[in-house]
Design goal:
Length: about 350
Amino acid sequence: MANTIIIGSGCYLPERIIGRDYFYSTQFFDEQFAPIDKPAEEIVSKFVEITEIENRRYINDNQTNSEIGAIAAKLAIEDAGIDPETLDYIIFATNFGELTKDGRSDFMPTLAARVKKKLGIKNRKCVTYDMIFGCPGWVEGMILANQLIKAGSAKRILVIGSETLSRATDPYDRNKMIFADGSGAVVVEATEDEGVGIIAHNTLCDNDAELCYLENNHSLNPDENPSALYIRMQGRKIYEYALKNVPDSMKNTIEDAGLNIDDIDKILLHQANAKMDHAIIDRLMRLYGIRKYDHAIAPMTIQEFGNSSVATIPTMFDLIIKGKMEGQQFKDKGNVLMASVGAGMNINAFVYRFP
């Protein structure tokens, strides 16, 4: 049975850097739909203290999600050194599709199909899918690609994670400062080499009471258009859910790979917010009886790039493998754990072993 290896990667970080002062003129509202009677500077400062997000990236007004996804895809294809006509599938992970400037989602045609056209691919047997799975969408796209390859349905697949969350946030919600834009992509390929590539994976979907922890809802400002929908997040609920469930899922995936935490060289965890990510890694280590560890095992990009949802993990992967993250590198034949949690609520993870 074939295994799935990454043969190329690429990412796109929008040029617009949005710092804390961008939000100083905002009138924030609370969850009771009332104005918050504090200076915006104080609210922003407290937000940075908790999340560590100092900057984030936004696309320009004339850019779209499929466009930036295509940029990352083109870079990944060039890095892989392949003919794009040889791709069997394109999987595009996203939450909101092709968001318009006024925040309306557009999924028809699919973003994967739009990228195929932008890349100039004429192969009619190159199948295009959108993966709508919350922030874990790119990880789930990789798991799907692996299953397609193992089933013999494909030999080469492009997996993209791209999002423009700056167009989906409530202008009056403090949580808007978490979200960002960006794209990342990889090309995966079948190999007959044993014990390499994706060697274990897990996915969990808790869709009962957890369903509304992240959802679309109207603005916190009651005077705004009630038909306009934005990201609404129950931060405390998500934090508690993630800490209770994500570390166990990560540990189970490591064990399914026949490994121990000492065998894992890097953990690429979805960049949700720094406080939560630190806590998840701490909890994972404690499951192995470890209280002191080298924090470089779990690189962080959220401080400068924000939470770009499905783009965060492939972006980190590309930056590290290209030597663009100071102090970070992958080991030859090393094991990397990639994991995410997000809307649904959904959790997933896979262990990847470099050839």
